[in-house]
């Protein structure tokens, strides 16, 4: 072919129908529907997206324009990079300062730490600590229940440093999110928000560049909410708090300038990226409905990696989870980001784990060059389509919540908690049956892990709602802040924070307690035939049982009933699983099970589902068929319970 012919040659445009035809051929009889995936958001993900899936009118949209789904800056991170705002944990102000100095010298770009009562044990030290940083770094602080005294300390530090040294960033709180965790507000609703608005008004005078209103969806995410629910909650909470400020005399421009939204980022990479893009779209349209100007409709987003997805056992895998979530957050277009350390859930975060977490973001900035690209996910047919579908579904849910009285009313009635609990139950069922994998937890568990059971910290409903001026005087006089705390009496059912791995972790800790009592959590595997015939199922059972902290001991190659009996007699285990091929099961399986249960008081299981004689297997003494669709959590719990009963009987 000549060069001229090559130039004149064109390729036929491939259609979705062409792809379907090729896919159907490769599936060899399986339906194409098997390639579609349903998510917890009730969204069906297609195996292929095309240009036709792009939302109408999107082709001309640029970052920093219109509904801001593509970001709030026209040049993306090139004009203003996101802030590395890893939250630091500490036991004293001195320790906090030391850790923060190290973090800031090693790449952190925002002042972020856990705000807790111990921070105010030495108020002079606290003010000195804040003053030492002046305006070098923005704040990234979820003040929670301690917003008023924190704002007071910040105001003192700012005044001592001089007005030229303005603090920036956010030291914000979301009273609705805090109420969701403890079951209510400390006082009557209107009374509370009148006082809170006064606090924010004083803070606006003292700290004009600091944002103070947080819309925090993290508690809902960590209770099991899906992306659609999180988005609807974000918009509903934003509307609720915005309306409270307007009702108490604030102008729309001022109120919006003080708001920052906070999201947790889960494990579904593209869903989480689309969630952040949809959030900006939804808030832009909502603010527009309130009459806000175009610049005032921008959503400032603080994000953090999910607690819901992290594990205690095999903690180094959390590095990979956090890295995936951090990447999704950056692609989604955030302004502040906390990457959790791999051992954060165990409460053992140290300089090493904090450095790894910080460097996760630094690698994305400096080595993956993500700060050099404006909206790197923009134009993706999949991401754009997912963004649109998330926004539409979230808006429907927001309208439903609004019809029930809005954000706080749906919490007070318990309706929202029920919706989230149902989604959490779906997650938990998938983890229990291993339909959803958690490496190192329900699959590929490492039985050599030495992990201590963490101490559960109770969430207490103590509020400080004095004015900023009053708190300034208290801090200056060193009076104990705790004297003016008010204990909240729950008025509705609070959210239940959880992690997906907790149910399996409880089994692992139960197994370790048995070991400390001198009882080895062990199950015997009766392996039928030569190794190549039983190995696959024996390996499967070993992996399944290890998720519950249970060790397995394999027999030799069992070809006769007497060989199986000899193995049982030599074992300390009282529970056994028969593992082999279907041919071995069919030849003498039920007879083997019947003989074992007739002569020995043991629990007997079968690996896989037999092709035939299932009822005969059951009557022969098989407790359960263990296979890929089994409820592993239920089986493991039953096995450990049996071991525990046996241990107590011996005692």
Description of the structure:
Keywords: Cobalamin, Cobalt, Isomerase. Residues 39-113, 135-475 form the Methylmalonyl-CoA mutase alpha/beta chain catalytic domain. Belongs to the methylmalonyl-CoA mutase family. It comes from Mesobacillus boroniphilus. One of its GO terms (biological process) is propionate metabolic process, methylmalonyl pathway. The protein has 651 residues and is an alpha/beta fold. It folds into 2 domains: 80-487, TIM Barrel, CATH 3.20.20.240; 506-650, Cobalamin-binding domain (Rossmann fold). It is 47% helix and 10% strand. The strands form 4 sheets. The protein has a 7-stranded parallel beta sheet. β7 (259-265), α11 (269-289) and β8 form a beta-alpha-beta unit. The radius of gyration is 29 Å and the shape is globular. It starts with a helix and ends with a helix. The model has no long low-confidence stretch (mean pLDDT 92).
């Amino acid at each position: 072919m000549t060069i001229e012919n090559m130039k004149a040659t064109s390729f036929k445009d491939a259609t979705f129908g062409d792809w379907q035809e090729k896919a159907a051929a490769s599936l060899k009889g399986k339906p194409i529907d098997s390639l579609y995936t349903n998510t917890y958001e009730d969204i069906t993900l297609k195996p292929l997206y095309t240009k036709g899936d792009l939302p109408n009118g999107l082709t001309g949209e640029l970052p920093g324009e219109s509904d801001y789904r593509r970001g709030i800056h026209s040049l993306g991170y090139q004009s203003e990079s996101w802030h590395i705002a890893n939250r630091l944990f500490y036991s004293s102000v001195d320790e906090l300062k030391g850790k923060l100095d190290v973090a800031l010298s090693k790449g952190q770009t925002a002042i972020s730490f856990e705000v807790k009562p111990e921070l105010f044990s030495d108020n002079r030290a606290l003010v000195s600590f804040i003053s030492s940083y002046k305006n070098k770094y923005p704040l990234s602080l979820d003040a929670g229940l301690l917003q008023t005294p924190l704002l007071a300390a910040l105001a003192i530090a700012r005044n001592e440093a001089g007005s030229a040294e303005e603090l920036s960033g956010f030291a914000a709180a979301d009273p609705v999110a805090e109420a969701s965790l403890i079951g209510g507000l400390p006082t009557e609703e209107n009374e509370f928000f009148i006082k809170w608005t006064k606090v924010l008004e004083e803070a606006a005078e003292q700290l004009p560049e600091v944002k103070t209103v947080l819309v925090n969806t993290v508690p809902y995410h960590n209770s099991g909410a899906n992306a659609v629910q999180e988005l609807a909650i974000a918009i509903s909470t934003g509307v609720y708090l915005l309306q409270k400020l307007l009702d108490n005399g604030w102008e729309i421009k001022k109120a919006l300038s003080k708001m920052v939204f906070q999201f947790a980022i889960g494990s579904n990479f593209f869903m989480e990226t689309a969630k952040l893009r949809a959030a900006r779209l939804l808030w832009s349209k909502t603010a527009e409905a309130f009459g806000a100007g175009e610049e005032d409709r921008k959503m400032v987003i603080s994000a953090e990696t999910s607690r819901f997805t992290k594990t205690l056992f095999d903690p180094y895998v959390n590095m990979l989870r956090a890295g995936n979530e951090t990447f999704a957050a950056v692609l989604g277009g955030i302004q502040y980001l906390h990457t959790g350390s791999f051992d954060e859930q165990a409460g053992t975060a140290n300089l090493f784990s904090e450095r790894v977490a910080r460097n996760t973001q630094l690698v994305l900035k400096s080595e993956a060059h993500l700060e050099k690209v404006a909206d790197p996910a923009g134009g993706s047919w999949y991401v754009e389509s997912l963004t649109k579908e998330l926004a539409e579904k979230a808006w429907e849910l927001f309208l439903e919540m609004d019809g029930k009285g809005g954000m706080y009313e749906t919490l007070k009635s318990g309706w929202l908690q029920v919706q989230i609990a149902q989604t959490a139950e779906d997650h938990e069922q998938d983890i229990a049956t291993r339909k959803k994998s958690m490496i190192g937890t329900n699959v590929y568990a490492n039985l050599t892990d030495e992990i201590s059971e963490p101490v559960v910290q109770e969430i207490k409903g103590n509020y400080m709602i004095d004015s900023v001026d009053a708190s300034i005087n208290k801090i200056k006089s060193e009076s104990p802040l705790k004297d003016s705390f008010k204990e909240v009496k729950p008025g509705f059912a609070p959210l239940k924070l959880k992690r997906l791995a907790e149910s399996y972790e409880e089994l692992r800790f139960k197994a370790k307690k048995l070991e400390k009592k001198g009882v080895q959590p062990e199950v015997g595997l009766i392996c039928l035939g030569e190794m190549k015939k039983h190995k696959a199922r024996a390996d499967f059972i070993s992996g399944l049982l290890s998720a519950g902290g249970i060790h397995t001991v394999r027999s030799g190659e069992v070809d006769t009933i007497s060989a199986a009996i000899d193995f049982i007699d030599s074992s300390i285990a009282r529970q056994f699983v028969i593992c082999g091929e279907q041919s071995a099961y069919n030849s003498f399986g039920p007879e083997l099970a019947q003989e074992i249960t007739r002569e020995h008081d043991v629990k007997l299981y079968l690996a896989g589902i037999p092709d035939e004689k299932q009822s005969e297997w059951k009557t022969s003494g098989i407790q359960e068929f263990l296979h890929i669709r089994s409820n592993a959590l239920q089986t493991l719990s039953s096995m450990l319970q049996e071991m525990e009963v046996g241990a107590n009987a011996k005692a």
